[in-house]
Design brief:
Largest sheet: 6 strands, mixed
Oligomer: single chain
Number of domains: 3
Bound molecules: guanosine-5'-triphosphate, magnesium ion, zinc ion
Shape: globular
CATH topology of the largest domain: Rossmann fold
Number of strands: 13
Structural class: alpha/beta
Strand order of the largest sheet: 10-9-8-11-13-12
Distance between the termini: 8 Å
Helix content: 25-40%
Radius of gyration: 23 Å
Length: 339
């Protein structure tokens, strides 16, 4: 955001908003204290299932879920967080502390800052589909984003029931490029159940998250895996074959065969903000061996002589489409920075 001087009136408004926000947080905290004054149970471990304004649904060790108040000094609590909490007499509770996270996914908020959305995710599952059609441009963005947060990605091709053999072969050939650089790719159909057992085996440990365009069938896949509570599924827009952004918020699901999954609107669109051009290049995993070996230290990997990435693409070590994709994403980052 460009720095500009606030007028007196704007400054007054900003201060008013901040004062109100503080007052709200204090009220929530007072509620928590009041509960704590009453008889609270002993401290116990909990898992954040979902989050609403100043409260959250916390699952205790016994699997029961309680609506909990959040202390003001707690810090940002998100779905997937492990917490310490105490249950009150009326069944609600108070979250006392957040355990250290091993990973955190964020999305940009309205003020161009980053807002955390999900914690302790072990695996990012990028869902693509027959309809809406596979877009490598989008897939590459998700892959870079996953590499940047250092959470291993996995690619799922959904809706195979809509592909006849030649169409299936064509999509598989495009996905082979990703298999070749070491990304696992699995094809399945949430509708027919084909490939679901393999997916169950892949996610039966730890916490996964689905990302991907609206309408590719993320929530349908969650439901096909029989969580204890179904997720909402939306129809595609008939004319354009696009999704309608059915899922909102973030929620954690447990599966009967083991493993957890967070279905989240915020993460669905998680992307590349605040990353440097160096990080972008690093996010293309097959580029890594070649980075730093161009003739010019400040090589832009465009048409410079002695560009190692260019050479690698000529030698078939890097797919030209991926190098193209890198350049396009870099351009969009530059455009964003110039705004
Ligand atoms: N033919 C076919 N349709 C599917 C399959 N999986 C999902 N769909 C349909 O695709 C549409 C969108 O599914 P959702 O599960 O809501 O998609 P989503 O990715 O969760 O979408 P958002 O929540 O908007 O991001 C629905 O009409 C589903 O019935 C499949 O395997 N085959
Ligand atoms: Mg959904
Ligand atoms: Zn270069």
């Amino acid at each position: 955001m460009s720095k500009r001087k606030l007028t007196k009136q704007q400054a007054w408004r900003v201060e008013k908003i901040q004062t109100e926000r503080k007052a709200r947080a204090q009220r929530a905290s007072a509620q928590a204290d009041e509960l704590e004054g009453a008889d609270l149970g002993p401290e116990q471990a909990g898992l954040v299932i979902t989050r609403y304004g100043a409260s959250a649904d916390i699952e205790g060790a016994d699997g029961e879920v309680a609506r909990c108040h959040l202390r003001q000094n707690l810090g940002q609590l998100v779905t997937g967080d492990h917490v310490v909490w105490r249950v009150g007499q009326d069944g609600t509770g108070v979250v006392v502390a957040i355990e250290e996270r091993h990973s955190l996914l964020s999305r940009p908020d309205a003020y161009q800052g980053l807002k955390p959305v999900a914690a302790n995710v072990d695996r990012i599952i990028i869902v693509v589909a027959a309809v809406p059609a596979l877009s490598e441009a989008l897939l590459d963005r998700y892959l870079v984003a996953a590499e940047t947060v250092a959470i291993p990605p996995l690619i799922l091709l959904n809706k195979t029931d809509l592909l006849d053999p030649p169409a299936r072969a064509a999509v598989e050939a495009r996905l082979d490029r990703y298999r070749a650089i070491g990304y696992p790719v699995h094809a399945l159909s949430a509708l027919r159940g084909e490939g679901l057992a393999e997916l169950e085996a892949l996610i039966h440990e730890g916490c996964s998250i689905f990302v991907g365009q609206s309408g590719v069938g993320k929530s349908s896949l969650v439901n096909a895996l029989h969580p204890e509570q179904p997720a909402r599924v939306g129809e595609l827009n008939e004319q354009r074959g696009e999704g309608r952004h059915t899922t909102t918020g973030a929620r954690l699901y447990h599966f009967p065969h083991g493993g957890d999954l967070i279905d989240s609107a915020g993460i669905r669109e998680f992307g590349l903000w605040h990353i440097s051009e160096e990080e972008l290049a690093w996010g293309f995993r097959e580029f890594r061996d070649h980075l730093g070996t161009c003739r010019f230290r400040n090589c832009e990997h465009e048409a410079e002589p002695g560009c190692a990435l260019h050479r690698a693409s000529e030698e078939g070590l890097i797919a030209p489409e991926r190098l193209d994709s890198f350049r396009k994403i870099r351009l969009s980052l530059r455009e964003m920075a110039a705004r």
